[in-house]
Structure formats: structure tokens, C-alpha cells
Amino acid sequence: MSASAPSRQGALDPRRRPGRVALASYVGTTIEWYDFFIYGIAAALVFRTQFFPQFSETAGTLAALGTFAVGFIARPIGGIVMGHYGDRVGRKSMLIISLLMMGIATTLIGLIPTYETIGIWAPTLLIVLRLIQGAGVGGEWAGAVLMAVENAPPRRRSLYGCFPQLGLPSGIFLSQLAFLLLTSTISPEAFAAWGWRIAFLSSALLIVVGLMIRLAIEESSSFEKVRDSGTVERMPVVEVFRTSPKQILVGSLASVAAPAIGYLVSVNMVSYGTVTLGIPTTTMLWTLIGVSVAWILMMLVSGLAGDRFGRKATFAFGAAIGVVWAVPMFWLVDTASLPLIIVGLVVITAANSIMAGPQPALITEMFPIRVRYSGASVAYTIASIIGGGLTPLAATALLAEFESSVGISLLVGGVCLVSLTAILSASRRTLEAGTIDSDRPAPDRVHG
């Protein structure tokens, strides 16, 4: 049987239909980002008092957000390890492992005794479990987007690739909704004492749902083509650094802005709105929930735009909005007027969506199939450390130092400028070094 025969048969397999695979990628990433972001919200709202009571308010908040950033330290490890086996064994098995790591670690966080009960062991266990979370999500993104993009129709790779990206605002939406329900139904004292744990313990049920969906789909057809042809790389991570260093650099720098905006809105804005501006927690969470819904819709539109106008052009447009809007956004937010806050946040999340929609297809097409999981994982996790892990810490430190939002505005604008410069300076050959259909360079195929 020819190497192409399994692919032709697999295309008829309902377990590999593009829509079903994209939906499975979306649901799985939504659950993983829910796990990831409930930690961020809890760090902003309650971890200071529960795990770092010996510190001052600012120092305790920085320590709590520091444990949030710790998860990003483990992301490259998870990305490299899962990238290696994802290119050698397959995408599907790594996605199942990452989902289990996230779910188990999140559930256990909900069971950790506080500092008052076990002393220094409380923050220590929190950091260990956060590291496991980070390693799990480090291998998640690339596997999910590869499953969606590699099984997508040739002219709809940007659209189908954006479905795993939808898991980010959807996870934010669910995490904010969970805390909104908890803070609305129990007293502040009960929420701080035990109520926050419910959000973490509920992850156990979500993981069961996610596993059922992911077990029901087939492996990526593109990976099976490589495996059937006997061209699987022995050391894919080493090979991708050897053959695609420019793609890793461009992919990492271009991908910095989207997570920076995402974590700023989902993590920092909760504490900024409630502590700095004096907005009630419930009001702030409802506002962010509404923004998340708009975020999801805008990302779908940007996925379509990536197929219609090109990945590069669409992505660059979103980065440019981020550069221009960073300062006006905080002008509007600092008014403490709810309508103006919504306008400020919707526009900045539009910048995120326009970048994030075509991003999976853009990054995927930079790397050959045989090293694609490793390349995409490394590029994305490097960007996440800079844009997502350090941004909440830097924003909190800048606010404490200057007691205004000017520093944060310049930080966001600067990060967006880095991504804009990286994508505009990238050549077609760099952006198309690996195609979905072939392992050979295809610089003549233009996507913007």
C-alpha cells in the first residue's frame, strides 16, 4: 500500500473530520486554560492571604503572582519533552498526557492546606503543582493546533487553526464565571477560607469530559504520513534548532504580544480594577466575562481573515492596533467608568484576536512536518515566558513603583511593537519554510 493511501482513507474517517478534530482541540484547550487561569485569578484575589500572609500587601501580591509566573518556567520543559515525543510518537498521545497533568495538578491545588496550617510547605506545594501545570500546558498548544491545522482543508487552515486559540478566551470566560458565581453566592470570609477551592476541585469533572473527547479522535494525518514514510526524526528538538533557528526566533518574537495582552486582561485587570480603581469584584468579573465573549467572536473573524487576506498581513494589523491602543486603553480604564472600560478592553482584545486567529497556521507553516511539534512548542513557550509569565509581574511592579498606569501602557505598547517588527521583517521563505502538504521548502506559496 502506498504511503498516501492511509491519508486518503483517513480523510473518510469521521474521527478525523476537520470540524470534529477542531472541536476536540477547542474543548481540550478550553479546559486546560480554565485550569491555568483560575490559578491567576486566585493568585490575584486570595493567594496572598492564604499562602503568603507574612508579607505586606504589595510584596504578598508579587509573591502570589510570582507563583503564577513559575508555571512559565516549566513550559519550555513541557514543550521540549512533548515536542520530542509528539514528533516521534504522535500528537494525540501528548495531548492526552498534557490534559491529565493539568487536571491532576489543578485538583490537588484545591486540596493544599494554607500557610497557617502547614507553614512553608503550603507555598512550596503550590509552586510544585504550578510547575506541573506549566509543563502540561507547555506541550498543549502545539499539539492542539497541529491536530486542527494538519487535518484542515488547504484553504481553511487559518480558520480551523484558530479553534484551539478560542480555548484561551473561553478558558478565561469559564474561570471568571466560576469566581463570579462563588463570590456572588458566599460571603467574602467563606470565599477566602474555602470557597476558592471549589473552582480548582471542579477541574476533575472537566478533565473527564476532555479525555472522552480527545480519545475519540484519530491521529494527525500529516504525522501519519511522516511515520508511514519512515522519515521520523530521531532527535526532532535538536534538528529544529539546527535547521530552523530563524523560524524559532521569528516565531518567538512575533508571538510575544498576544499572550502579553491576554494575561494582562485576564490576570492583572482583575486586581487593577478592584484594588486600584475600587471597582467591586463582581462588577469587574462581569465586565471581563462580556469582553471574553466578544474576544471569542473576534478571533473567529480573524481566523477567516487569515485565509482571505493572508496570515502575515492579518497578524501585522493586529499587532499595529496593540501598539497604537496601549496608552488610550489605560486612559479609558483609569476613568473607572464602566462603558469606557469596556471600550478600552474590547479594542485591546481585538488586537489580541487579530494576531491570535492566524497565529497557529502562521507558526505551523514555518516548520517541516517531521519537526513541527518541537518547533511550534519551542517558539510558543519562549513567547509565553516573555509575554505571559513576565508581563503580570512587570505590570504589578511598574504600578507599585510609579503609582500610575503609564508604565504598564508603555510595556504593552513595546511588546506589541516587538511582535510587529518581527512579523514585518520576516521573509516569505522564513514564514513558509515548511508546508502542510510537503516537507520541502515552498517559498512560492504566499500567505500575506
Tally of strands: 0
How much of the sequence lies in strands comes to: under 5%
Series of H and E elements: HHHHHHHHHHHHHHHHHHHHHH
Number of helices: 22
Oligomeric nature of the chains: single chain
Structural class: mainly alpha
How confident is the prediction overall: mean pLDDT?
83
Shape by Cα distribution: globular
Question: Distance N terminus to C terminus?
Answer: 38 Å
Radius of gyration over C-alpha positions, nearest whole angstrom: 21 Å
Q: What are the segments in which pLDDT stays under 50 over at least 5 consecutive residues? A: 1-12, 436-448
Q: Helicity, in percent?
A: over 70%
Largest sheet: none
Question: What is the strand and helix layout of this fold?
Answer:
Layout: H1 5-10, H2 18-45, H3 47-51, H4 57-88, H5 91-109, H6 115-118, H7 121-138, H8 140-150, H9 157-185, H10 188-201, H11 203-215, H12 221-229, H13 236-243, H14 245-254, H15 257-276, H16 281-309, H17 311-333, H18 338-356, H19 359-364, H20 372-402, H21 406-425, H22 428-431
Helix pairs in contact: 2-4, 2-5, 2-8, 2-9, 2-10, 2-11, 2-15, 4-5, 4-7, 4-20, 5-7, 5-8, 5-11, 8-9, 8-20, 9-10, 9-16, 14-20, 14-21, 15-16, 15-18, 15-20, 15-21, 16-17, 16-18, 17-18, 17-21, 20-21
